[in-house]
Amino acid sequence: VQLQASGGGLVQPGGSLRLSCAASGFALDYYAIAWFRQAPGKEREAVSCISSSEDTSHADFVKGRFTISRDNAKNTVYLQMNSLKPEDTAVYYCNLEPYWGQGTQVTVSS
After folding, report:
1. Buried (b) or exposed (e) across 38-77, using 16+ Cβ within 10 A?
2. Strand-strand pairing, 45-50 and 33-38
3. CA 110 – CA 95 distance, rounded (Å)
4. Residue 7: per-residue pLDDT
5. For the chain, which residues score pLDDT lower than 50?
6. Which of 14, 81, 89, 91 is the most buried (most CB within 10 A)?
7. What is the bridge-based pairing of β-strands 90-96 and 33-38?
């Protein structure tokens, strides 16, 4: 079982990025997947989650800006991040308990 996160980078405030979490070794179809993030010196926190039936939930600090989605045919979950703020800077991880992806760095800075 592997989760491969990608799509991070450097973006200016107000910009957008789309993160991808590609799964291998199993089919995502029947599982809930979550995105977490961890900023320097802070604890890891939950950002968004999508169930197997595509119900979604988002932390208050990203509501209205981030959207989580899944493409079971591609065995991939996405996190569309819009209106990015400097405080969104963190390493973003995808999670399917108990497995974690390796993380992708998102830096929001002018």
Report:
1. eeeeeeeeebbbbeeeeeeebeeebeeebbbebeeeebbb
2. antiparallel
3. 30
4. 98
5. none
6. 81
7. antiparallel
